[in-house]
Each structure stands twice: as C-alpha cells, then as structure tokens.
Amino acid sequence: MPSYEQSKTSKLWSVRFRETSPDGTTKQKRLSGYATKKAAQYGYEEYILKKSQEPASLPKEETTPGDMLFDTLLEYFYKYKQGRVKSSSFYEIKRKIDKRILPAFAGQKLKNIKPLDVLNWQNEISAQFSYNYTSDLMTMLTSIYKYGEKYHDVQNIMIKVDRPRKTEAKKEMEIWTPKEFAKFKEASDNPIYTTFFTLLYITGCRRGEAEALSWSDIDFENSKIKISKSLTRKSPTAPWELTTPKNESSNRIVNIPASLREMLAEYRAWQSTQCLDATFVFGGERPLAYRSTDRYFEETCKKADIKKIRIHDLRHSCASLLISKGVSVVGVSKQLGHANIEQTLNTYSHLMPDDQSKICSELEKVAKSLVK
Fold first, then answer.
1. Cα–Cα distance, 38 to 41 (Å, whole number)
2. 228 near 245, Cβ under 8 Å?
3. Fewest beta carbons less than 10 Å away: which of 4, 142, 209, 273?
4. What does the pLDDT read at residue 358?
5. Residues 251, 254, 260, 264: what is their CA dihedral angle, to the nearest 10 degrees?
6. Kind of pairing between the strands at 241-243 and 252-255
7. Spatial contact of 28 and 18, defined as CB atoms under 8 Å apart
C-alpha cells in the first residue's frame, strides 16, 4: 500500500510504495514534488496506470507458460483489457485486483498456484466481505486465467475452483413512497440538493447522469431531458471526468412533468444569482462534491425522521412508483435506460402484480364456455 508524507521544510508531498518487477523482485519507489496530498494520490495512480500500459517483458528463464509469474500475466491482461472497456471501468477493475487479488499471488509462478490456493484465498475473502464482493473478485480472477489460457497457453485452474456459496439472505429493496419523499423534500433547505434529489426521484436517472447534466441538456419548451453522458470519479488522472453513459440504451430522452420543469426553471434563476457561468446544472463550475452530497442526504433523512436509504434507491423508488401505476415493463426499462428488458425484469419482477388470480379467472370463463 502506498504511504504519503509531507516534507517539513518544503511542505511538498511525496508517496512511497513497493514495486514488483516481472522477475518477482521488489524495490522501494518514491514519487515526490506534489503540492497537496490529493495531487500525490493522483500522481501515484497515474504512475501505476502508465506502468500497466508498458509492454510486459518475460524473464529469460521463462521457458513454458507455467514458468510465467502471475504478475507478468496480469500486466499482459491489463494491456489487453484497457481499450476494451471504459477508462473508468478499467480503473475500477485494476484497483480491485491490485488491492485484493495481486497481493495473494504476487511473485508466484503460475505452475505453483494450485486450485486449493485459490480456494483458500476465496475463503479468506469471504470471511471479510460480502458474497457479491467476493463473487466479483472471483469473476475478475477467472477473467485473468481465461485470457491467459486463450493467448498464452496458461492452464486455467479456475475451472476446478468452486464458486462461493451465497449464504446471506437477500436484502429487500429499500424505496421511498411519495409521502416519504415529500417529508424529505420538506426537510431539505438547500435549493441545489432539493432539486437534485427531486430529479432523481421523479426521473429515475442514475446519480452520475444527473451530476453530468448541463443546462443545454434540458429542453424546457418540450419538457425533456437529454441523457448522453455520465460523471465518474473512478479516474486515474483526475478527481472526476465525463464519460459515456453505462450502456447504449442509457443514451435517451426523458420526459419530465410540468411541476419538475417549473422547479428546474426556478432553480436555474436562483443559480444565475450565485454563479454566472455554470457548467453543471448541479454544482456550477464544478460538479457536486460526492461526500458532501452523501452527508447532506444522510443528515436530511435524520431531520425528516424517515428511514435512511441509499441515493441509488431513489432510482428504485421511481421504478416502483411507475410499476405500481401500471406502466409496462417496456416503459420502465426505457425510462431507466436499461440495456434490455431482462435487466428490468430481474431487478423489479417482485414488485410487479401477481396475475395468477386473474389468469385463473379468465381460464375459468373459457372452461365454462367450452362445457356449454
């Protein structure tokens, strides 16, 4: 893990960390000359990213695929993966692998890593983290070995390792009813956050999609919002960046009710008195601060005396409301920008009405007509 320190004389920040060479040897590395700790963190992340882009060199003593170090295979994998996924996704994948997977197998030749070693590592991870997180890590490790099998003739030992079993009870989806959100809205005393959370609840758009909005994306005349970008903080070189939405279907036009349109118009008028050249609808010249938004949401929940949910659950609340009003699964899917209808059904099928009694009643009518 990197360690950060500030010079008592120059007041500049530096970062120290251990770097592993392809031959398995490690050495101390130091990057210095940063004005702030945050800048040092970005500098470290940028250095690690650049190293992952460099072509991996195999040690001379490697003669078979099994002699390759896990670290070397991982370098090849990163080079392969980058460019095939969004930069924010690549950064998040690499962050998890470097933090949870690499330390367990670093410096080991692939032929010396056995299925039992992976199973023992999986058990250790399962004892510390949730099933979903453990399963996610196993999927990443499997992807590394599948890549190695396909392109480097590496034996894929992951086919012999059992996946973790889900022993946790499935958590019920947390949502707010319109009455609960009304209490939250009444307790909110900040125009930026009030409008931001109302937009999330009414439209069901993702947090990053709302954070990325500019005023040119809002068509007041036709009461529509264009979703064509998303804001991510999973960037190796900056505190945030604008990217494409989650999937192709996420590029969409969302209709908004007149009341939300008027609320946005009033908010825009207020914002113009605070910031003349606002780049973002929410935040002004810069997007909303992530942790400040989380903190405000939590504090307002307590103030309103309502159950605490995640900000992402406002999206679920919107979907639940639409389903309860009889909106078709196709309509809900398009509103949320899901990749396909199956995703909508998998997520919200438990909220949809049970038609068994209606089916039975209709079949009974058919049966009686046949008897006659």
1. 5
2. yes
3. 273
4. 60
5. 40
6. unpaired
7. yes
| C-alpha span between 52 and 49 (Å, rounded) | 5
Q: pLDDT of 251-300, one tens digit each?
A: 999 999 999 999 999 999 999 888 878 889 998 888 999 999 999 999 99
Sheet of 218-219: strand order equals 218-219, 224-227, 252-255
Task: Give the amino acid at 202.
Answer: I
Name the packing angle between helices 37-53 and 87-96 (round to 10°): 90
Contact 182, 321 (CB under 8 A): no
Query: Using the 8-state DSSP alphabet, how is residue 277 labeled?
Result: S
CA distance 240 to 221: 31
Dihedral (C-alpha) 248, 253, 255, 261: value to the nearest 10 degrees?
A: 120
* DSSP string for 62-106: --SGGGSBHHHHHHHHHHHHBTTB-HHHHHHHHHHIIIIIHHHHT
Q: Which strand (E) or helix (H) includes residue 132?
A: helix 131-152
Which residue from 131, 126, 122, 78 is spatially nearest to 104, judged by alpha carbons? 122
Collapse the DSSP code of 16 into the 3-class scheme (helix H, G, I; strand E, B; otherwise coil) and give the result.
strand
Query: Tokens in use for 122?
Result: 């999986």
Report pTM.
0.67
Give the pair of three-digit tokens for residue 94. Answer: 């690499």
32: how many CB neighbours lie within 10 A of its CB?
Answer: 14
Element (H, E) at 224: strand 224-227
Judge whether residue 171 has pLDDT over 80: no
